[in-house]
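Re: the multi-chain job from yesterday

Posting the exact lines I submitted so nobody has to dig through the queue logs.
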Amino acid sequence: MYANRHAEARRHGARSVTSSARAYDGLLSRVAQTRDRAAFAELFEHYAPRVKTLLMRSGSTPSAAEELAQEAMLLVWRKAHMFDPARASAAAWIFTIARNLRIDNLRRGSSTLYELDPTFGMEEPQQPDAILSGAEDAQRIRAAMRTLNPEQALAIEMAFFQEQTHAQISQTLGVPLGTIKARIRFGMMKLRAFIERDAGASA
Amino acid sequence: MSARRHPSEERLLAFAAGTLSVPEAVVVATHLALRPETRAWAELGEAVGGAMLDDLAPSGLEPDALDDVMARLDDASDIATPVPRTADPSLPAPLRGFALGPWRWLGPGVHVRDVLGPRDGDCRVILLRIAPGQSAPRHTHGGVELTCVIEGAYATEEGVFSRGDFEEADPNVTHQPRVVSSAPCLCVAALDGQIVLPGRLGRLLAPFVKL
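And the result, structure tokens for all chains:
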């Protein structure tokens, strides 16, 4: 099945899928700059099936996750001009698109149309000292994640993948809420310290 | 120890993960719009989300998924029309998409208006405007209250909070912010439940004041 879709991507002119995060940033920039359909097909190949997994882990049914994953990729096409590779990786940017779409969809029953775009609608120039920039993020984040102790890593992962509030994580793990918050807080501080040190060392 | 004036790291991670309630997310987003230095934390959370997304096992899509989406790329007909922007354009960007209710009197020099839309159960968003030198009625908190200062400044027992500062109320603390700026202080707040006004003034105001 996966091979099938791969063949489709080729039909749409996609080149072979590379696994490097930098390549996905480049693909997304090409979509933004030249409306490159082949580049989009390649992004779709990699991200649509993963966005579907993300949404299923967040409680969507497979068919709802399928539909939302396709919608998310359409938004990637339409909003590509807002992608700033100096600010975020393609992975992080697509993650925020999927996240916002999921929230928006959850609220659609109410009168709220909720959309916090990845830049929070701000036009201010970016900070020169942004700690994360562009393509190497994913690698650095992974390296940083490996420095967390298992409890910290688990608390942070659960916050993302099971879309659990911290109170729910506390219940699931049978650990006090304050402990969960502390694990997340110290985990986040450790990630940031590692990334800043790493950035300083490579500058 | 001076009070923290930004959301906690765990709240920023919840914002990045998308698990905050909408009213809470609106107040956090307002803070992020006014305080770019805090954005690094939210972006760190989003970068973690991105790295995790990259590492997820792919789920099989419908056989026609890519063709269907490719066929819809140029179809503008299913793009949702933007929500009418009836809000005050001088507000920070995250608040501009919402209609606003009328200002209501809440006490001497104190006015409140609803930010219509973001709601989650009893939790909702309000704008609070307090005149210079005035205090909000002394109150305890019925639920979590997140506040972000948009204009002016107020002081509490914890210190001075000015434009962009974010305060997370402690349910055990009685709170009486007093405006210390020369202009009125405008704040956005997410309230869960009713604010409880203690004491004689509270009982006096209770029949009139509905936050």
